[in-house]
Structure formats: C-alpha cells, structure tokens
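User: Can you help me understand a structure? I only have the sequence.
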Amino acid sequence: MKHHVIAIKGICSVLLGIMLTACITGSTVEQKRAAVQEMRSEVLNDLYMQKPDVRDQIATSVGYAVFSNANVNLILASFGGGYGLVHNNASGADTYLRLGEIGVGFGAGIKDFRVVMVFHNQDALQRFMDYGVAVGAQADAAAVANDQGGAVGGELTLDNITVYQITEAGLALQATVKGTKYWRDPELN
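Assistant: Let's start by predicting it. Here is the structure, written out as tokens:
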C-alpha cells in the first residue's frame, strides 16, 4: 500500500509540474506577451533543428501558429490545455490564443508538448481564426525528461494545415481521437 501512495504522489507531482508549465508567466500583459513570444522562438528553433526544411515552409506560408500544451490521458479520456499565438505572415500581426482539448481513446500518461501549425492558404487560416476548432487522431508514445529519452508522435489534420508536434516532457502511451478548441485570449489581445 505504501508503494501505491508514493506512486500516486509522484504522478501528482509530475502532473502539477506539467500543468504549471502550460501557464503563461508574468504579472503584466507585456510580460505575458513576451513569455508567449519567447516560447514561440524556442519552439520554432527546436523544430528547425529537427526539420530544417520547415523554415522555408513557414516563410512561404500565409501564417502559422505555435502552442504550448499539457495533456493528461486517464484510461479512456484525454484532457489538455495551453496557450499560444497565430502569426499572419501578410500583416505581421500576432493573435494570442488559449486552447482546451478533450479526447477519447485508450491510454495513460501525461505529457508536455508543443504544436506548430502551418497554414498553406488564406482560407485555412481564416477558418481557424473564425472557428478555432481542430479535430484529429493521435497515436504516440513518449518518455522524455530533462532532454533525456525519446518521443514518437503522429498527428493527422486536414484543411491545408500541416501540424508538427514536439514532446517536451512526459510519459504517455495513447491512441485517441480528440477535439481542440482555440479561442482569443481576452487579456493579451
């Protein structure tokens, strides 16, 4: 019984740590925007190191989005939340967003990951901004902590949007169908 209590405490500690990393740090609007901008730069740099050709893909796209997300999968249900921004390459404008997701499928685990979406045409970007919904299927295995371990992920999204996922930390084995809702952050816009 003692081992079960220790395991539960450990899981709760990791879960709390991952959820806290999904929060925007800073006390002022400017500090929070700067934190999102910094997250975007770090994520894009990580992605460019892994897939250098994505730099040209993003540069020639109509826009892109970068999100930080924490996800928990408990047997048959998956929940997550995070923050990010959409950058319109034509206008140079950033729109700050929040996200929440829910899914169903088999699995267990928690993970902290980043998502980059590349919008290949104006209609796809506009639909995303108007409706803020993405539905997809996900299957992945992740075991990453302190830059140690590895992660394999796959994401299927349609509608002229390419999605890249980078797992930062966590332990997860899951196969889910999920829906994600994105909405404008009223504090940062």
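Now, to help you interpret it: The radius of gyration is 17 Å. Strands lie at 63-88, 94-119, 133-145, 148-156, 161-184. Let me know which part you'd like to focus on.
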